[in-house]
Amino acid sequence: MTLDSRITARTVEFARQMRVDILQQIFEAGSGHPGGSMSCADLLACVFTTRIDPTALAEERLDRNHFIMSKGHAAPALYAALAGIGAIERSELSQLRQLGSRLQGHPDRTRLPAVEMSTGSLGQGLSVGAGLSWQMRRQGLSGAVYVLIGDGELDEGQVWEAIALSGVLRLDHLVAIVDANGIQNDGRVEEILDLRPYPQKFQAFGWRVKEIDGQDHGEILAALEWAEAEQPQPSMILAHTTKGSGVSFMEDQPAWHSHSLTDAQLSTALAELTAP
Amino acid sequence: MNADSKVSLRDAFGEIVMQLAVDDPRLIVLDADLSQSTRTAVFRDKYPDRYLNVGIAEQNMVSVAAGIALGGGVPLVNTFAAFLTRRAADQIAMSVAYPNLDVKFFGFHAGVNLGEDGATQQSVEDLGIMRVIPGIRVYSPCDARDLSWSMRKAINSHGPTYVRLARFPSPAVLGAEDSTLGFRVLRRGEGSIVLTTGTLASEVLDAAEHLAGEGVELTVIGVRQIKPLELELVEQLGVRAASFAVVEEHNVHGGLADAASELLDRCNVPHRIERIGIPDRFGESGSPRALLEHLGLAGDALISRLQQWDRSNKGHVDVSM
After folding, report:
1. Which of B112, B139, B170 is the last residue of a domain?
2. CA angle, B161 as apex, B159 and B167 as ends, to 5°?
3. Peptide bond preceding A197: is omega within 30 degrees of 0, i.e. cis?
4. Cβ separation A135–B68 shorter than 8 A
5. Which of B60, B94, B100 sits opposite A161 (nearest CB)?
6. What angle (nearest 5°) sits at the alpha carbon of residue B88, between those of residues B87 and B93?
7. Are B229 and B257 in contact (CB under 8 A)?
8. Distance CA B303, CA B288 (A)
9. How far apart are CA B61 and CA B53, in angstroms?
10. Model's pTM, two decimal places?
11. Is B105 a member of any domain?
């Protein structure tokens, strides 16, 4: 087994557990966004296992990698990743969306310090990441800022303001990861507001772009390394993903954008996810 | 600053930022293509690595400021009050106030200061918008010394703040009396109380002086901290019952009058407020002075309104007390 394949085996198992945790959280809460949480599970698994130091989260320390979940409705994926790296207890996941819980329906940094930024009103996370990255560079601090955004989220004009500014400022430690699952609340992205092709648009604003299969851990890990190359530009990882990835009856189904599961659906899904 | 000369709050802002920046390397200045109006050029030239002009993109500016605050900076976010509080209201609430980040907002040319430009550049609702977003402290200084007080209060404690600034030179209204409170008694008379805020305070004082010549001695209180209003203000307005006028360059809804009413309600003080503000309408083109007079907020129009109200208030106070 090579080093790469050992890492991949670890991230794949991490993502599998995340998917189990995502569905159980949403089942117990009775509501939530499974489709977009499942689509980004592999991306988060790779980032959190290889780029995020669980002991440094929620500390005052700034010279480290940072992660901002701009598509805040995928909060169950973020909480599952935080549980996976030990930043929160797995048992706390059952509190999602409950009154008084630290696990708000969309992430809240004031309640849960391991969350770096409160998000949920779409389109703002990349601007926040740009500001953080600019401030870190000013102070000579090492570390990258990873921002996960949805392809539906690209509809928000502010995302393009952030893309423009980051390109002009040459924020070389800013890494945007687009979870391009092709489906937004009202339907397929190309039927709502078709902004494709994405790469040429990002490149025109001064970004480096790498297109990958966002469910392939080898490609994700390679892209994270690619983003660390010394280039005077921000990096965009355009990750083509499948909404609801990992559960056959959820995959590529717009209905699973925001939806809870029945007992039977949860059993079927968990059986798929735990099959040898 | 010479108390006799007129100083515009934006010029004072530029000077105070330079004073504060020397000792506080956390301070970062942000602009959205209005740096000539916000008087930040001296800061930009002295501290180019602490300055960022994001272009005409206020929403982005606010969220970028949130990121700078996450990175340990204290960003001062500057643009016209209208573009800041109307256009970027969601970013102010969701990128800054909800996550409780240390971002300081400055709304320039508030009220109808940008007279000839018309309603799109004027802000008659900024105090209301900022007041109802949870967790933001709101300041509306009456003169340059108040501005200095407000900026130091804003910057020396953690959390989001909004400071409302005016465009035109205005006289110092503070006199000798100093205070650590968020309001000051600018004029003490035997008669009715007038509450005001911002640089309109000098207009109210002028009107009060004129009325003194006719035997009406108003008390004028300038409020520089709109949120939170302090309990000490209740002692000035009346602890058993209160009847006073509020003069503000703001919609009669959502501004100082509502804030004062809320405070008195919390203290169970029955009250009646004469709201002399902008009557739930947008502004329009005209010279700022002509516009203020047209709205009854300056000159003879203000004098006349205060005089009429004072007459009726005397009767009202007698009945309520």
Report:
1. B170
2. 160
3. yes
4. yes
5. B60
6. 140
7. no
8. 18
9. 9
10. 0.96
11. yes
Q: Which domain holds residue B196?
A: 174-320
From the list A138, A139, A158, which residue is nearest B60 (CB)?
Answer: A158
Question: Is B75 found in the same domain as B58?
Answer: yes
B64·A127 Cβ contact <8 A = yes
Q: Does A131 sit within 8 Å of B91, measured CB to CB?
A: no
**Tokens standing for residue A98:** 């409950």
Question: How many other C-beta atoms can be found within 10 angstroms of the C-beta atom of residue A276?
Answer: 2
Provide block-wise average pLDDT over 10 residues at a time, chain B (321 residues). 72 95 97 92 96 98 98 98 98 98 97 91 97 98 94 96 90 71 93 95 96 95 97 95 97 98 98 97 94 96 96 62 40
**Which chain A residue lies closest to B71 (C-alpha atoms)?**
A132
Q: How far is A144 from chain B (nearest CA, A)?
A: 12
Same domain, B34 and B134: yes
The reply to whether B242 falls in a domain is: yes
Number of domains in chain B: 2
Chain B residues near any Cβ of chain A (below 8 Å) = 28, 49-50, 52, 54-55, 57, 59-60, 62-73, 75, 90-91, 94-95, 98-100
Which chain A residues touch B160 with a CB distance below 8 Å? Answer: none
Residue A131 in contact with residue B68, Cβ under 8 Å? yes
CATH number at residue B88: 3.40.50.970
Closest approach of B59 to chain A, Cα-based (Å) = 7
| pLDDT digit string, tens, across residues B71-98 | 999 999 999 999 999 999 999 999 999 9
Check if the beta carbon of residue B144 is closer than 8 Å to that of residue B10: no
The domain in which residue A39 lies consists of 3-274
Look at chain B and count its residues. Answer: 321
In chain B, the residue whose alpha carbon lies closest to the alpha carbon of A160 is: B60
Q: What is the dihedral of CA B59, B128, A107, A263, to 10 degrees?
A: -120
Report whether B227 contacts B259 (CB < 8 A).
Answer: yes
Radius of gyration of chain B measured on its C-alpha atoms: 19
Among B170, B200, B223, the domain-final residue is B170
Q: Same structural domain for residues B244 and B275? A: yes
Asked if B136 and B181 sit in the same domain, the reply is no
**Separation of alpha carbons B193 and B208, rounded Å:** 10
Domain count, chain A: 1
B157 CB-near residues (< 8 Å, 6+ apart): none
Q: Is A94 helix (H, G, I), strand (E, B) or coil?
A: helix
Looking at the fold, whether B246 and B143 belong to one and the same domain comes out as no
A269: domain CATH number is: 3.40.50.970
Q: CB-CB: which of A109, A129, A157 is closest to B67?
A: A129
Inspect the interface and report whether the beta carbons of B67 and A135 lie closer than 8 Å.
yes
B295, two tokens: 């709205």
For an interface test with A, which of B31, B51, B63, B91 has the most A Cβ atoms less than 10 Å from its Cβ? Answer: B63
A110-130 tens-digit pLDDT: 999 999 999 999 999 999 999
From chain B, the residues in CB contact with A157 under 8 A are 59
